[in-house]
Amino acid sequence: MIQNYLTIAFRSLWKNKAISVINIVGLSVGLACFALFLLDVINEYSFDRFHAKADRLFAVYEAIGEISGQPAQKMSNLPMPLGPALKADLPDVARFARLQGAGESFLLRTPNGVVEEPASFVDPAFFQMFDFPFLYGNANSALSSANNVVLSEKMAQKLFGESNPMGKILEINAAGGTQFEPFTVSSVVKDLPSNSSLQFGILMPFEKFATTERGKAAATDWAQLSMQTFVELRPGSGLANNQARMDQFFGKYYPDVEKSLRTAGLWNKPELPVTFGLLPIQSLHHDPNLGVNPSLSLILLAIGGIILLIACINFTTLSIGRSAGRAREIGVRKIVGASRGQLSRQYLVEAILLSCFSTILGIALAAMLLPVFNQLSDKQLTFDFQQFPELFGLIPGLALLVGVLAGTYPAFVLSGFSPLETLKSKLKIGGENWFTKSLVTFQFVLSVGFMACTFIMLWQMNFLRSKDLGFDQENVVVVSANGTTDPAKTLARLRQSLVNQPKIEGISGAEFSLGAGAIAGNTRFEYHGKTTDIFEHFIDAEYLSVLKLPLISGRNFDPKRIQDTVTSVILNEAAVRNFGWTNETAIGQVLTGYNVADPTRNPVVIGVVQDYHFRSLHEKLYPMLFMAHGRLPQQFFVRIAPGDPQQALSQIQAAWSKAEPVLPFRYTFLDENLQKVYVAESRMSKTIGWAGGIAVFLACLGLFGLAALSTINRTKEIGIRKVLGASVAGITALLTKDFLKLVVIAIIIASPIAYYFMQQWLTGFAYRIDLQWWMFALAGAAAVLVAFLTVGFQSVKAAIANPVESLRAE
User: Fold this and answer.
1) Residue 638: enclosing H or E segment and its boundaries?
2) What φ, ψ does residue 101 adopt, rounded to 5°?
3) Which ranges of 580-617 would DSSP assign to H, the alpha helix?
4) Residue 439 pLDDT > 80, yes or no?
5) Dihedral, CA atoms, 448, 453, 459, 464, nearest 10 degrees?
6) Is residue 756 predicted with pLDDT exceeding 90?
7) CB 718 within 8 Å of CB 730
8) Do the beta carbons of residue 180 and residue 143 sit within 8 Å?
9) Tens-digit pLDDT profile for residues 619-635
10) pTM value?
11) With the C-alpha atoms ordered 257, 262, 267, 269, is the resulting torsion angle positive or negative?
12) CB atoms < 10 A from the CB of 778, how many?
């Protein structure tokens, strides 16, 4: 029986080649998109499960409640003595491992010169807790000596090529500055899986960090939060669910935190305002505070599902559309004894067979598109059945599900035909029935919605790129001072070398850069009984002029005035408004309460600058306080002349080589740094754009096939109309109007839905475009045009056909 079903299915597919090709192409494209998004979700939800002890590995975090109106949060940066204290005080803790400097850059001296690479310090237990397979070396000897270094396979190839790096010397400025120490490569870890929360290229022993100035200062300092801590619990331990023991542990080392917050009236709940907690390692990646938000992957999977649904709708509508062509076959088979169940199974087998073909092609297409998807999503995904064993069951299951989903309704309809009506050719079904129209409308609701969302995202991204940030971001080179022994002296040498260069318009130093990766420090103090939060930025006197930040009132910093290096500050307009002053009355105001230890050093306002966006446009403008004293500059800003930057960069590099002959010249452009803040939104809009394009393509593919079937079913009518004098334009309009009505209905339905979702998306931006009616009208007009061209092709082809041939065919 099954063999008979398959034989008939192959014959039917071969007989209707055009429709079969449309169905296979549509399903293949839909399955390819869904497979890519499904792989992304599988990857996201498989993080860190490859560790043998994954169920006993936990990340320690500090939980902070809602204090002073600030939302509750978790912090992964913890004090250095925490790990040893956990093991000493809590018998449940079998091992601990601290990770210091995750993502921090160090200088490495290689045969090709000095380079900068991210590196971290870890405890020796790190490789006993986490299962990272070794290419060379082993877990026991990896960090056995203070001057050992462990490399990832990728980093080893980058630094030493394809040769075995074991035993080779790598010089690193582990203690900072320009002092290099020799480290011996003791192990090489195989390339880390993409679903690992812990990613590293270079690991040094934690005991080396303990010997540095920073390590010595942090060794017993419970207030310095600078490293991650992980613990391995003993089998059967319930510590992770025993918050009372964690609260007791926290209270031992922070005995005054709860009391001080309650006394100040900032906390009145029964639980502790601040405490420690344990987060399972497998939950780390998806924790909203400590990891990433998984909602994006789920949204992409939903988009993939919608695209696949559109492809399934194509199959259903085309199957119903060509049902009249199979009516005589059904009538004959019923007369010779075929039951409705047998016919249903026959058509389901056809659908599943076509789905299997499409799945094979779809997975092949997905594998071809995977590099593009990886580039778009900034991931390194692979169709690795060993890494993702779920694929063994999901792919065949997907093929079966799609076949059943797409074929059930057509099988139900076809098997229900009356044999007498089919043999008398009185059957009327196809593009005219309400269900087919509903499916076509639903397809275009999804397609128009995608188009509208894509247009709005692109407009928002263009708005972010073009919005005036309050300063001139163009033609500014940002030079990293990381690793310099005395950044202030280096800045002075650079300024002296570049002052007379025609391509250099100014140079300044500041504590942090702007844009991606920039971290602004903030402080909180009581000003006349009101808690005030304000960001701090340490700059020099040239900063305002180099960035072209307008000074609204007061004056700039003057290095010749002693008070400007001690107490003078400049505020932005947001800070002035926060304190209840005007730009003029702010001058001379003293920020009482800022320096409780020495009130004589409370800041005095000497100027007010125009508000400027030093953070993402997702956020509102925050109060900012500028100081020209305190911390050393870590970033140098160099304004260059407009035009080709190569000459200016050569001059800056030459000056840098004189000022810091050991350190490499590391630079970025300020405008590029600012745009990198919106990388996630840019990727999202591109992904939605591609999805929208594919959805429209699939909808039009189905519409094309349905229009072709409609014209075939109306061949006799078209021939008679032409004989009676109907024009080509009239027949084209007749054949296209019904389909275009469905598209217009889809636009009416899709517009408010797209408006709702885009309104929700835009609420994530403090500065955003306003949604206008014409945005949705434009998407609708594009859909009507595409649909008209698709249906019009078939309609014109039918309209210009010889009516004699049309009537003869009937």
Assistant:
1) strand 635-640
2) 80, 30
3) none
4) no
5) -170
6) yes
7) no
8) no
9) 788 888 998 876 678 88
10) 0.74
11) positive
12) 14
